[in-house]
Amino acid sequence: MKRSFMCNFRKLFTGNVIAQLFLFGISPALSRIYTSEQFGLYAFYTSALGVLLVVSTFAFEKIILLLENSKTVLNLCFIIVACWFVGGSSLYFFTDFSPFAFIGETNKLVIFLFGAGLFAASVQQFLTYEMMRQNRYDVLSQLKIYQAFGNGGSQLGLAKIGFPSIGLIAGDAIGRIIGAIYVFTIYLKSGSKQKQQDTIWNTIKNYHQYPLFCTPSLLFNSLALQAPTFFFMMTLGADDTGLFSFTQKMVAVPIALFTMTLSQVFYGHASHLAKKKDLQLQNFFQKMVRKAFLVAVIPMLLFGLFAPTIFSIVFGEEWRVAGELAQIMTPLFIAQLTIVPVSQILYITTQQRVQFFWDIGRFLALTIGFLLLEGAPLKEMVLFYCIVMTVSYAVLYLLGTQILARKGTKSIEGL
Fold it and tell me: In terms of Cα–Cα distance, which of 295, 319, 298 is closest to 307?
């Protein structure tokens, strides 16, 4: 099990490193081509996409890893995503409504790119779970590389040929489409050979608890993560939002991809350990948290100490404020590197209700706090966001520890 875990981690990590090195390598050029205002609009695009993505298949994709034959669930996901796309397109066609209406953005090309990017990301999301079920972590590694090169290359190219206003958004959409096409092609060669063993209606009845509890929980989780972007965009404007967004892009996104690598492998292995009546899952959880913290704490503290200088030298003096924001958020970055890889522990231990209350509690704390801080400077709002998020991750760790300890006690008593 340990050898398999490390092998899968290396495959995913290699792909992520290559992808991030490329994206980081072109970042100094992007920071000099695009303005903070354009990064602000791009941040709203990615945040709106992230929120809608979590409900794009009503969490049915989380069932895939639990099944020997996933054909029915995959067909169900395809149908749901197609319905969302047709429904969303029809809504915009007849009413001109889109998420961008909240910020007064009416560019039809931006809205089209948003729809295309969301559709591609949705397909990519549930097929990622299928690749994990098939133990095809090599495919996921390649997926990261293709998406990164499609994204970054397009963002550079579109700016060079005279489309800087939509270059960031178009590049992101192109990268997602390339990734979706790649993983769908692999699925056609492997997973499509499965035969559907149950009706779609029976699948919905048997696993209705996933959309019932997981979808609201995932929605509140995503809203909490994207709350700063939405709130900053509507109260402070695109310029300040762009500074925060650039900090996220340069620090939080690489962290997220690293933690996602660990999280995907952890989810796959922990799902198997959860079926056993012993202490293996509890030990695995604690070992992951301990090692992640030891790896993260010193490098992130050193980075936080020199972040403003690093940002001004690498990206230009106009981005020094983004470095100051990164300095403020250093404790949060450490918490993310430590806890996010094991953050699905409540799903693995079938504690969807606990997860729901944790998600909604964090969302309410952020929402109420931002409303009370309306009119405050950007740095104060970012500090508040950092405190709430860091505390919430600590609470999640304590919940996971308590639930696994209770499970371990029952296993010992049953011996």
Answer: 319
Written as six digits, the tokens of 353 are 């209700």
Helix (H, G, I), strand (E, B) or coil at 113: helix
Count CB atoms within 10 A of the CB of residue 216: 18
CA 156, distance to chain mean position in Å, is: 23
What element of type H or E holds 359? helix 352-372
Q: Position 6: which residue type?
A: M
* CA-atom Rg of the chain in angstroms: 21
Report which of 271, 285, 282 is spatially closest to residue 343, judged by C-alpha positions: 285
List Cα–Cα distances, 364 to 38, 61, 224, 370, 392, in angstroms: 29, 27, 8, 10, 12
267/111 Cα distance (integer angstroms): 34
Sign of CA dihedral 20, 24, 25, 26: positive
Three-state secondary-structure class, residue 36: helix
pTM over 0.70: yes
Q: Residue 296 and residue 301: Cα distance in Å, rounded?
A: 9
The tokens describing 301, both together, are: 């503290």
How far, rounded to the nearest angstrom, does the alpha carbon of residue 199 sit from its chain's CA centroid?
31
Q: Which residue ranges of the chain lie beneath pLDDT 50?
A: 411-415
Residue 77 CB partners (closer than 8 Å, separation 6+): 57, 60, 61, 126
- pLDDT of 345-357, one tens digit each? 887 887 878 888 9
**DSSP assignment of 141-185:** HHHHHHHHHHHHHHHHHHHHTT-TTTHHHHHHHHHHHHHHHHHHH
pLDDT digits (tens, 9 = 90+) for 236-255: 888 999 999 899 888 876 78
**Residue 102 to residue 2: CA distance in whole angstroms:** 48
CA separation for the pair 200, 153 (Å, rounded): 40
Helices 378-413 + 320-328 axis angle, to 10: 30
- 65 secondary structure, DSSP code: G
- Under 8 Å CB-to-CB from 198, ≥6 apart: which residues? 72, 206
Residues with Cβ < 8 Å from 221, sequence gap 6 or more?
Answer: 54, 359, 362, 363
- Token output for 26: 């072109």
Write the CA distances from 64 to 67, 160, 354, integer angstroms: 6, 42, 22
